Every structure is written in C-alpha cells, then in structure tokens.
Amino acid sequence: MSKEIYQARAEVAVRVRNGQPVEEARRRLAAAKLEQYISKVVAEAPPLSKEQVDRIALLLRPSDGQNGLH
C-alpha cells in the first residue's frame, strides 16, 4: 500500500473518531486507491492507442454536474 493511501486512511480514521466531516478525506482515499490501481494496470498493459486512452479517460471526467466518478 502506498504512503498516500496510508495517510488518507489515517485522516479518515481521525476525522471519524473526532466527529469531523469525512467526505473530502474519503474522496482523497478513493483517489489514492484508484491512482495506485491504475498505475499498476497501466504498467502491466501493452501501450494503448490515443482513442483507447480517450475512451478510458472519459470514465473519470465529470458528467451531468457530478463531481467525478459515476
């Protein structure tokens, strides 16, 4: 597990324990987990075409006024 994931997990735990808002901390934790997973998959995959990269990137872009992932 990456340093970023450990830090984000700790932040969520501290905020929960102290009764503080956790939404942004959970968002950072989710992003850190996604970044680690995507990095691993990209490192193991053959090179993608520009069209494939664009299609995959669309999955992470906000749509319908949402804040990112659907």
Structural features, described:
- The protein is an all-alpha fold and 70 residues long.
- It has helices at residues 3-17, 23-44, 50-58.
- The protein is elongated and about 45 Å long.
Structure classification: mainly alpha
Helix proportion: 55-70%
Which whole number gives the mean pLDDT? Answer: 90
What share of residues are in beta strands?
Answer: under 5%
Distance between the termini: 25 Å
Please summarize what this structure is:
The protein is an all-alpha fold and 70 residues long.
Please specify the SSE layout and strand pairing.
Elements: H1 3-17, H2 23-44, H3 50-58
Helix pairs in contact: 1-2
Keywords:
3 helices; mainly alpha
